[in-house]
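hey
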């Protein structure tokens, strides 16, 4: 089975290609992972919903020839709306919220951002793979990569120090004369004379935190002495 651990941060550096069609990046592990392993991995992250969705698709394909047809079929299926709704209500019962829409977009399912119809299961405009399993595996990997980046930000010393300095600067409203600018996305910049701004260094962050620590200690001593 395909294995992934957030602390290894493997996906952040596993991009091997870019699709020319819409610039989507592909992970090295995608073409090397067997279909069964892709299903098992997504199931492990999504409460078994991919296997269940595949079961529903197979069941529908087995039953559709027996369902009443209309003359011009939406999406190429030709299944009448009322029998289609009845089939969904009868078969999509595992989860409190149905995976297949039987109220508005009849037969549509949305899973991991994949939007398709059970009648055709055609690839969407912004999807990468025709195969549903490969598409869901790809999208799950993208979610996992975001988790890796969040983990990195939470554990990387530089990121942690920047966050602490930002919090202390907001608390005490001073950076002790250092021309610090806090930018969006957690960035911390320092004015560098006439040369614009640059990223703050780890040593500068540690120096600022040392000064904030001295202020903390002073406030504590004064508070105790009251």
């Amino acid at each position: 089975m395909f294995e992934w651990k957030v602390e290894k941060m493997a996906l952040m550096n596993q991009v091997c290609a870019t699709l020319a069609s819409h610039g989507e990046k592909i992970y090295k592990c995608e073409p090397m992972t067997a279909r069964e392993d892709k299903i098992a991995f997504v199931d492990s992250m999504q409460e078994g919903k991919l296997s269940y969705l595949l079961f529903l698709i197979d069941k529908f394909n087995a039953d559709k020839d027996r369902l009443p047809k209309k003359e011009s079929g939406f999406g190429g299926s030709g299944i009448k709306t009322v029998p289609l709704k009845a089939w969904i209500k009868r078969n999509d019962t595992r989860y409190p919220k149905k995976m297949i829409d039987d109220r508005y977009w009849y037969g549509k399912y949305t899973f991991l951002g994949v939007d398709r119809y059970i009648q055709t299961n055609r690839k969407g405009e912004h999807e990468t793979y025709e195969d549903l399993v490969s598409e869901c595996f790809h999208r799950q990997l993208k979610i996992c990569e975001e988790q890796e980046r969040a983990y990195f930000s939470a554990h990387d010393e530089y990121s942690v120090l920047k966050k602490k300095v930002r919090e202390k600067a907001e608390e005490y409203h001073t950076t002790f004369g250092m021309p610090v600018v806090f930018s969006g996305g957690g960035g911390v910049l320092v004015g560098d004379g006439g040369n614009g701004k640059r990223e703050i260094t780890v040593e500068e962050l540690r120096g600022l935190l040392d000064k904030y620590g001295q202020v903390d200690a002073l406030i504590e001593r004064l508070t105790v002495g009251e």
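The first strand starts at residue 15 and ends at 18. The two ends are 63 Å apart (CA to CA).
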